[in-house]
Amino acid sequence: MKLHVLGCGDAFGSGGRLQTCFFVEGSSRRFLVDCGATALVAMRRYGIDPNEIGAIFLTHLHGDHFGGLPFFILDGQLVSRRTAPLLIAGPPGLRERLAVLMEAMFPGSSSAHRRFPLTLVELSPETRAEIGGVEVTPFPVLHPSGAPSFALRLECEGKVICYTGDTEWVDALISAGKGADLLIAEAYTFERSVRFHLNWQALRLHLEAIGAAKVLLTHMSSDMLDRVPDGCMAAEDGLSFAI
Fold first, then answer.
1. Residue 228: its pLDDT value, please?
2. Residue 166 and residue 29: Cα distance in Å, rounded?
3. How much is the pLDDT for 80?
4. CATH topology for 2-242?
5. Which of the 8 DSSP states describes residue 102?
6. What span, in angstroms and rounded, lies between the C-alpha atoms of 152 and 164?
7. Which of 22, 90, 102, 111 is most buried, judging by how many CB atoms fall within 10 Å of its CB?
């Protein structure tokens, strides 16, 4: 199984990075974790076929994490001629917010006929669900977004991936990431406290308790971009590696 970083930036383009989107490529499953506004641009840049993606898992409903969905859906409808089913799973409120977003960006698009089945699944906190061949468990975190925000624990093909999403430190991150093969963790700042966001020093104190095999730092502001703590990887747009 491989992880492809299609976007690892914050909401404000720090370092010229694209917005949050991770592509997980397994032998039989291919899915996205978050779909920021630049996700489709990144797929074109890095040669990823959107039609290969069977599911999209969302941590929360901010534009830099789910704002790429209208482009992705309309590409399947109008450009890529998608026929394969697409599953999108995210927090409660996903159905309403996605429809509002699509209508704001492309009026009439939310109800237009599609050649492919689109299924929206609203996840229940701390309830494991099988979605598109992936076992997903959402853990509530602290990041206001107009709907619940989650860290996601994803299990597929014998591997465990956890993504913290955006949040200040909460103890639920230990359960979400416990023993994961890969922990993708926000490190917005090095040590400066920014409300509702995770800094490296707060994360560092808990890495031993989490016990993840690999740690990938992402969603870094300019304060963090030039710092690569020992024992961790720093995300870069276009980075790919085996999990």
1. 76
2. 25
3. 93
4. Metallo-beta-lactamase; Chain A (3.60.15)
5. H
6. 7
7. 90
